Amino acid sequence: MPMNPSNFPNPTPTGGASTSGGAADPANERGTSKVAQSAREAAAKVKSVATDTAHRAAETAHAVAAEKKDEAAERVDSYGRAIHESAKSLEEQDPNVAWLTHRAADRLQSLANYVRERDYPALRADAENFARRHPAAFFGGACIAGFILGSVLKASGRKLAESTGESDSFQTGYDPDRETRGEESMADAPSAPAAMI
Q1: Cα 38 to Cα 27, 43, 44, 89, 118, distances in angstroms
Q2: Gyration radius of the chain's alpha carbons
Q3: Could you tell me where the Basic and acidic residues compositional bias lies (predicted)?
Q4: For residue 17, what is the DSSP state?
Q5: How do the domains of the chain map onto residue ranges?
Q6: What CA–CA distance (Å, rounded) separates 87 from 98?
């Protein structure tokens, strides 16, 4: 028998489609739509939880930043008050120096008030704008602030060491009492042979 297309059997439809126009099974469509709906609901819940968590984290960060900002403002204000007190002792000796010292203290206290009145994003924006307009002054001020912070940390470390009875590990440099106690100074210490260096 010769091969012609009429001799081949009709292919059977696959994938659950019927022979009448290829329409899908209604039960299969309902199952697929239920799965899709469940997936959309789960995605919406995950998105909602993520949004709530992000909002809570942002609120916590803002609260911590506000607390630290207020602490910094209070510390700067206390420095201003202390400088005013020291300026009072200078008033009799040198009124000009006392006037300049009071003026510096007033500036510190106005800075403290400025920090108290502004929120963190506004302070950040102001600092960025100042840094763009006056980069040398900004970085110079950052260096000075770093030196002051280092001095404060060093002094507080000494105070802590004294209060706990530990030796002062912050002291460096020449100690004239070391020689009278019989301790070797760094200049008197034997140097390492050249071969070891």
Answers
A1: 17, 9, 10, 77, 47
A2: 38
A3: 53-76, 175-184
A4: -
A5: 122-163
A6: 5
| DSSP structure class, residue 183 | P
Q: What are the tens digits of pLDDT across the range 27-84?
A: 667 767 888 888 899 889 998 888 888 888 888 888 888 888 888 889 989 999 999 9
Cβ–Cβ contacts within 10 Å for residue 27, how many? 9
Sign of CA dihedral 74, 75, 76, 80: positive
What is the rounded CA–CA span in Å between residue 121 and residue 114?
Answer: 13
- Kindly state the helix (H) or strand (E) to which residue 160 belongs, with its residue range: helix 135-164
Residue 125 token pair? 């924006």
What is the C-alpha end-to-end distance of the chain, expressed in Å? 101
Written as six digits, the tokens of 179 are 């020689």
CA–CA dist 14, 16 (Å, integer): 6
Q: For residues 129, 130, 135 and 137, what is the CA-based torsion angle, rounded to 10 degrees?
A: 180
Q: pTM for this one?
A: 0.45
Take residue 190 and report the two structure tokens written for it: 């034997």
**pLDDT, tens digit, 9 for 90 and up, residues 72-117:** 889 989 999 999 998 898 888 888 998 999 999 999 899 899 989 9
